[in-house]
Amino acid sequence: MxxxxxxxxxxxxxxxxxxxGGGALMTPLLIFLFGVAPQTAVxxxxxxxxxxxxxGGWIYGRHGAIDWRVFRRLAxxxxxxxxxxxxxxxxxxxxxxxEHWVLxxxxxxxxxxxxxxxxxxxLHHLGQRVRTETPIQFKAVQPAxxxxxxxxxxxxVTLTSVGAGAxxxxxxxxxxxxxxxxxxxxxxxxxxxxxxxLVAGLGHVTLGHLDVALLGALLAGSIPGVMLxxxxxxxxxxxxxxxxxxxxxxxxxxxxxxxx
Length: 260
Hints:
cell membrane, TM_pro_TauE-like, transmembrane helix, TSUP/Inactive_protease-like, transmembrane
């Protein structure tokens, strides 16, 4: 278990630098490296992501790098969506018998996360173009589209623990192409993911999907990692790092799909 705090540190560092990695990297690590059951990996990772991202969100908030209006719009969709998804999971009790389903869904989400990371710049440019060419129409639908985005992310993150960072950031780049600076994009994304993973994580705890000892070991490394990453984010260009993460996620997603 000595490698566990180190794994937590690496993931925390990446979360602080890029806003991505809480679920997309940690859940596969828990399943493949530590042999954790998929549903337990999802539940443990959601609480891991909540605590890790809350530290990063606090640092970004201190620097005024969170857009609270955008945060509220996302949370208005994601938090109720997460609650409904948890109710569905509780009703149908998708546990060990559904391990293959969980792995396949995780594989799909990792692939989507990879694509979102790779094409984030194109989405940003598309959002800028649409915002410039049809400003009135764009502004009119912007709040509703943000809430709908929150609904989708809330459901997917609750099922898999993956997507709050990369999918959320990609959507925000399109929906708010001029409003959010790079720092505010990451800060707002992390703040929303913190709220969402708290709700989803506590719901999974009630379903028995938590390994307390593993969570503690991961947090021992992740908290200093995310603090360091958040401080370095203004000094380091994370574009190449995101590209490497995207490639890894695509490979891991394919492996999960095949294994499922």
